[in-house]
Amino acid sequence: MIIIEFENKPANERKELMKQLTEKNQIEKEKNIEAAKNREKLTAAIKIVGVILEPSELVDWFKDTFNEYDNDWALHDGVENKPREDLINSEIHSKAQVELRALVDETIKEELNFLKMAYAHDLKKKYKEPKKKNSEKSKKKFKKNVSKLNPNEICEELIKNNLIKKSVTSRFADFQGEVSLSTGILRKEPYYSDSPYGLGDVRQIIKEFCVIGLISEELRTLKNMKFSQSLLIAGPEKSGKSILINAICTETGSLKIELTLENVSENYPELSKINQLVKNIITFAKQCQPVVIEVDLADVPFYKNIPNELKVYKPSLMQKLLIKLVKSLSKSDRIIVIGKARSPWLTTKTKLSNVFETIVFTVPDDCTIFLFLNDLLMSYPVVSRTFPVTPLATMLAGYSRQMIADIVAEVMTTERVLTLRQDPLDPVEFVPVILKYPKQNPQQFEQYYKWYNKYVPIGVSKMLEMETKQTPKNINNEKKK
Question: Minimum mean pLDDT among 170-179, 335-344, 379-388: which range?
Fold first, then answer.
């Protein structure tokens, strides 16, 4: 057949075919020689050991993998950049070595066990087989405790559970309030007293303790510099707590993570899931610094008596979440936990003040209410500049700024503004509208202030300092009398 094929072909092709035939024959000869050598080795080993050596199962696996590789790359013979066969071979051999090592370890353990049994039998003793550990259960437990999520997957999970939302742009100028100019004078001798700060001072406190630390990474590493890792903003409803948090995020370019009782209880109803949530938030926040973690109703989990409506949301989970979050933060992390509170005096002693380092109040004082109301009314050009703002401001004491703005907007309709020239504005017109809104306690700031002086460490130290400085004055006054 070879001669018949060669007769019909030219001389050049005959030479090439002859070369191919010789190469094939050479390869077959080499294979036969190797097979003969292997047989000789096997016979020699059988004579020495006395055991028939069987070929390993890995031999067939090697043959199958290499044949599969040859078949896959046979179609790409004309490719210029040929594959690195040495890398592929080394990868296949490394996998085989791992599997072979596992098999060898198992066989060695079995042989050792047989030797122990034989030794115990010789000594006429009972032999107890070692208990096998259930590796599957341990692996499952380990997998449950350890999070393998990367920051992108954690971000998707937080967005899905409504913990990350679209940010609201606001500035510190949007939080209206006047600076207390008399505080520095009143704290000096001989008129020493711890007078309350104004709402304008809250902006400066937050900038110094929070904003600078979130912006500058270098200052956080200094030993003398200390920035707050946790902040509590306490105040009545619609008093500007959210405006301040959004202003911190806007000014520092921080990402905001929102934690509420509803979100946490719905998506993480167990303690194990709470622990996992803390790990996920910390790993994600460290990758996306600076980060602000906002906690709504942060005082509710620490109440002495939690209302029945809020017991459904399991506030104890939020309490544990807050404590673990604050503990897991380090000084160099540009991450801050900011809580919003309404009634901190209802909490149990110092539990709330131990979690949050810095505490500020957004309760509007009389001066702020007067100036805010004056700006609102004088924004209408038709309103008389002699309008009695002071009595109206005293009537609105105890209302938040947002409520005051709503009351003014409800009274100053377009129809009423058009008739102001003929019929001037009277403070009595605001009374029926004011009665519609729930009035808060005008002495509410005193409740915040008493709780601060009783349970917050800075407030307690201030009260002790005041008492020590006032006692010698009282003694001198009694001597004069």
Answer: 170-179
Q: Phi and psi of 257, rounded to 5°?
A: -110, 120
Bond before 388 cis per omega within 30 degrees: no
pLDDT in tens, 361-410: 888 777 778 888 888 999 888 888 889 898 888 888 778 778 888 899 99
Band of pLDDT at residue 15, cut at 50, 70 and 90: confident
SS3 277: helix
Within 13 Å and on the Cβ side, how many CA atoms surround 367? 11
H/E element, 361: strand 358-361
Q: CB of 459 within 8 A of CB of 452?
A: yes
Q: In what order do the strands lie in the sheet with 358-361?
A: 255-259, 291-295, 335-341, 230-234, 358-361
* 117 vs 188, higher pLDDT: 117
How far, in whole angstroms, is CA 158 from its chain's centroid? 9
Range 431-437 contact pairs with CB under 8 angstroms and sequence separation of 24 or more:
431/395, 433/407, 434/395, 434/396, 434/399, 434/407, 437/399, 437/403, 437/406, 437/407
CA-nearest of 434, 229, 437 to 333 is 229
CA distance 358 to 456: 9
Task: Give the E-state strand segments of 273-331 in sequence order.
Answer: 291-295
**Stretch (H or E) spanning 100:** helix 85-122
State which amino acid sits at residue 142.
F
Cα separation, 318 vs 306, whole angstroms: 13
Q: Which residue has the tokens 């729930």?
A: 438
Nearest C-alpha neighbor of 364 from the set 139, 208, 175:
175
- In this structure, the strands spanning 255-259 and 335-341 are unpaired
Alpha carbons 279 and 287: distance in angstroms, whole number? 13
Residue 303 DSSP code: B
- Tokens at 446, concatenated: 């005193």
Asked if 430 and 392 touch (Cβ cutoff 8 Å), the reply is: yes
Tokens of 250: 């806007």
- C-alpha dist (Å) from residue 279 to 165, 276, 357: 20, 5, 22
Q: Give the DSSP H/E element, type plus range, for residue 338.
A: strand 335-341
| Burial class for 405, CB neighbours closer than 10 Å (0-12, 13-18, 19+) | middle
Give the tens place of pLDDT for each residue, 260-296.
888 888 888 888 888 888 998 998 888 888 899 999 8
Residue 179 structure tokens: 């600076």
Q: How confident is the model at residue 143 (pLDDT cuts 50, 70, 90)?
A: very low
Per-residue pLDDT of 403-434, as tens digits, reads 888 899 999 998 988 898 889 898 889 988 88
Distances (CA, A) of 362 to 197, 216, 236, 319, 342: 10, 26, 7, 23, 10
How far apart CA 263 and CA 296 sit, in angstroms, is 11
